[in-house]
Task: structure prediction
Amino acid sequence: MNPYLAKLRVTSQENRHPQEPSKPSKPIAPVVAHGDTTAEKGFEGFEGDRSRCLSIEQTQLGRFCRSIDHLASHCPDHVQADRWEAAVEDGRRFLTQWGGQADALGWSTRDLFGLAPVPTSPRPSYRRLSRYDETGLIWLLRGRQVLALTESTATVENPTGAITVYRRHNKPALGPLGDSLEDLA
Result:
């Protein structure tokens, strides 16, 4: 196993917060149904519904929840609809699994959901997701799973099993080596 990945997994497990199970949202009522259902065993449902990220009053993740709710309400300009829908699902999945750790490590809503600003008069071919240096982690997941999260990186597993490291700060430029004055130092 890659020693970097092993270290990230250990760090992730050390920082993981224990999750308590949700409480039933309604009193249990007898249900007449055919077959073996969870309602017959005394379970009727969880508090809240899937359309909400988390209850903002019960968590410190309110800023992330408001961001995902805002993102889910409409597709941003100059973003393809399929990428937007994938980002909403990826965002909900990420916040469920990693939201607490992202908050504890100081990740901002811009780090997770950020998009490049729209120019004053964009060309018809302009796409906000073409600027990797200004694109948040959620937009880049595209259904892939986050394996580990640190203060400055997120480790993402690709379908092929390869690992991609997303850097929160100091994202590399997309141009060739020598394209920047910083390359001369």
Q: What stands out?
A: The two ends are 34 Å apart (CA to CA). Residues 31-52, 54-58 have pLDDT under 50 and may be disordered. Residues 173 and 181 are 12 Å apart (CA to CA).
